[in-house]
Design a protein that fits this description.
This protein is mainly alpha-helical. It contains 16 helices and no strands.
Length: about 300
């Protein structure tokens, strides 16, 4: 219980998404922001691989805590983001961070500083204190869009499928369902690399639309399989599951978090991402909670 409480307060997704977005070069932002989903999928792969080894919960907790300690070390040496420094008029400090990130290439550093300065000078209606009002059209519209995107991400039932994957593979007749679950996690990780490679080239919206259609098609195959005889039933379910994993990992796993780091003004980003992350977790809970009821 305490672990879950501390995890909630740490708000990893809430902090990591904007941090990666702000520290990444503009033209490679989608690729770098996909790193967060790669980390998530790597963690799931580690846990599922440990399940194959049938280790006790003590060894599992020790191994995962060791990974957390390594993560803590790298967090302490991570620099502040250039965008935040620029918003505080710390141009020299922002340039130092960009020098570090871009291997002291002066042309790239100067180009990035110009982009950051332009973004900080964008003319947006502000209140008497110079801040963008939170309940303004400039914030509410992207907030509504991001909440809807997060709801769609969760109602695809990906977390329910991941949580119930061992049972799913048992029902499909696989002899080693834990190994199959680890293999599915590896596929998720592999396809997320594909998403990272395509996000900046193809664009966020196009990938979300295309793979939303493919996810719908995969879920339709799941439903159709129930009306077929056992042989075709198992084959179609396996095909649908593979298509579903591919479609979700290629877009809907990472891109919503990429967008969440790009959609809001800097001064309102924390509050907006708190709401977006909260909506994500609420529908995550509702989906996982209702999944067994629908199965029964």
């Amino acid at each position: 219980f305490l672990l879950e409480v501390f995890t909630g307060f740490s708000s990893t997704c809430l902090a990591l998404s904007p941090y990666i977005s702000e520290i990444s070069p503009t033209k490679h932002r989608g690729k770098f922001a996909s790193i967060m989903q790669l980390q998530v999928q790597f963690g799931i792969l580690v846990i599922n691989s440990l399940a194959v080894l049938d280790l006790s919960f003590r060894w599992t907790a020790f191994i995962t805590s060791a990974i957390a300690v390594v993560n803590l070390f790298f967090v302490t040496i991570a620099p502040e983001t250039p965008r935040w420094l620029m918003s505080k008029a710390k141009v020299r400090e922002a340039g130092d961070v960009l020098d570090l990130l871009m291997e002291q290439d002066p042309d790239l550093v100067n180009d990035e500083i110009e982009v950051l300065q332009r973004s900080c000078r964008v003319e947006i209606p502000r209140d008497e204190h110079g801040a963008i009002p939170f309940f303004s059209a400039q914030n509410l519209k992207p907030l509504a869009i991001m909440c809807v995107i997060m709801i769609i991400q969760q109602v695809t039932a990906v977390n329910a499928v991941l949580a119930d994957s061992i049972t799913i593979f048992k029902d499909l007749g696989f002899v080693e369902p834990r190994t199959c679950t680890a293999g599915m996690s590896a596929a998720f990780l592999l396809f997320t690399f594909g998403s990272a490679a395509l996000t900046d080239k193809a664009g966020r919206k196009l990938l979300l639309v295309v793979f939303a259609v493919l996810i719908s098609f995969s879920l339709a195959l799941f439903s159709l399989a129930g009306f077929l005889d056992k042989g075709l039933h198992m084959a179609l379910l396996t095909l649908a599951l593979g298509s579903y994993v591919f479609s979700f990992a290629m877009a809907w796993g990472s891109i919503p978090w990429v967008l969440s780091g790009e959609m809001f003004s800097l001064e309102n980003q924390g509050r907006a991402l708190s709401i977006v992350s909260g909506v994500n977790w609420v529908f995550n809970f509702l989906t996982v909670f209702t999944w067994p009821l629908l199965i029964d």
